[in-house]
Amino acid sequence: MMITTPDRWTVDYCRISYDKRGAAEGVGTQHVENENSADELGLTIAQTYTDNDLSAFSGIERPDYQRMIEDIEAGKIGTIIIRHADRLHRSVEEVSRFIKVARAHDVKLYSGMKGSFYNLNKAAGRKDLINDTLNAEYESDHRGERVSDARKRQARNGDYGGGVRPFGWGVDTGRVRSVCVNPKAPVAERRYEDRPVLDMSRHNEAEAAEIRRWADDLLSGVSMRQVLADLAERGVKTVAEADGRNLRRNGRAVKHEGWNSRTIKQILTHPRTSGHAVYQGEIVKRNAFEPIIPEEKRQALITLFADPTRKTTPGNTPKWLGSLIYRCGVCDDGTTMTVRKNSRGQFVYRCRTKGHCSRLAAEADSFVELAMIERLSRADIADLLPQRASVDVAGLRDRLRELDAEETDVAIRAAQKKITAVMMEVFAAEIERQRDEIRKLINDATAESPLAEFAASDDAAKVWHSKSLGRKREIIRLLTPITLMPVPAVRGRGFDPASVRFDAWQRAREVA
């Protein structure tokens, strides 16, 4: 059968969703088949439109498809040859728009696999094209559902579903797999490298220990800024840095930027950290893996990060043991001290408001550390550990959510003038009081005491020196207020122990 379209092109359209090898072999095969169809029709293909490695789903830009539509609207095209309807469209919305354009410009559409034209000027022909597209859409959706079900089943079984290795997980199995590092390059130019196969159901012990350290630090009062500063000082690597991954943003290579508070929070609050299997953000199986931190501690961290009273504004991270902790002995009213340089360029502690009590910072900190180690070496240190009562952490968190709902209800009632502004303030204050009590209960039940390791060790100095600066500062806050006294300096005497006062326990003389 001879089909003529005077002065207009016969064209073909070729598309493949996923070109694994990057050699465009799939679209090449389609074009050959389309040429055979054109020969049978007595036509010659004057132009080929090709979208390789691109899906046909609506919303995904297909440059050559769009160029073909523009050529139809310009009156250049008379006949389009395709292998199958699903090469042209995968959604009813898009095929409906195509039919409208094709009919407006009297364009014929031929399918090689169907072996006939779609008569777009007849309802039956339009229905055939839409049905063939619907069938393709159904098959694709069904395949997607099967993949989704398989992924979910994999997650329930505790199997790792692939992707970037989560921090804290992955043990080398001793096996390797070959991975192409430039899969889109021509076949002859592709490079492969062997990468270790990891058991993702087991902890990377060094990274898991880091996660536990963050959790304990934050729950014992150490600030997020101090945690980040400690990570930077110790040179702890992120997954991308440890695994040598090349990071890209908007198609461009970018440098590793290290840790940030958002990443720390995501790791600490992710269900997998407590051993739960997750699929698309939902827990599909609890206790699928050995937990890095227990569930109650993860929930406590979620509560901590959600606390609106928690200070999150940026500021300077303390670099000295007693900055903003040691008190001024001249003011003697709780005013704290900070570290500055004196006229000789030495770092000294001074009253933050009036500049009193200049004390060499390094010497003061060294003396305080000796005092702390001595106190933490005593046998009665266990008496300072909190005696925890049994607390329903999950129930307390549910009560926090109920209080949020009550607060919203009070606000609505006030807006509707059902209660007065004074009553609203009373209700709001009571809700906040209950919140504070609940947060304290959760913290007391889940927080790791900074003193726990000292009670279990006979080497307080070793434990002390293993702690981050932030944790040391929290231990000082817990044990005793420290005041730097205005003791006159004596030439040649060195640091005077009398210049440090431990207000809860007088140990300066004994340590000296």
Automatic annotation (TrEMBL):
Entries under Pfam families matching the protein: Recombinase (PF07508), Resolvase (PF00239)
Lineage: Bacteria, Bacillati, Actinomycetota, Actinomycetes, Streptosporangiales
Chain ranges of the Resolvase/invertase-type recombinase catalytic domain: 9-158
Superkingdom assignment: Bacteria
GO MF term (any one): DNA binding
SUPFAM superfamilies, per the entry: Resolvase-like (SSF53041)
InterPro entries named in the record: DNA_bind_recomb_sf (IPR038109), DNA_bind_recombinase_dom (IPR011109), Resolv_N (IPR006119), Resolvase-like_N_sf (IPR036162), SSR_resolvase (IPR050639)
Name of protein: Recombinase
Ranges where the Recombinase domain occurs: 189-311
